[in-house]
Prior knowledge:
Blueprint (H helix, E strand, L loop, with lengths): L2 E2 L2 E2 L4 E6 L2 E6 L12 H6 L5 E8 L2 E8 L3
Antiparallel strand pairs: 1-2, 3-4, 3-5, 5-6
Amino acid sequence: xxxxxxxxxxxxxxxxxxxxxxxxxxxxxxxxxxxxxxxxxxxxxxxxxxxxxxxxxxxxxxxxxxxxxx
Length: 70
């Protein structure tokens, strides 16, 4: 979710729901948001399995999948 209405989301707070937990993440000047996952949570994730995550900003919602790599 880099652009909303044709504009980058610079310095905006997004809500990311991943593995039943919600994280609040701020975007950088390019509209990219990154977050860190604790080691205890990484141990629970299985390699090769696909997980869904949902990104919310205002009324905009994006659902994506990620695959855990070794």
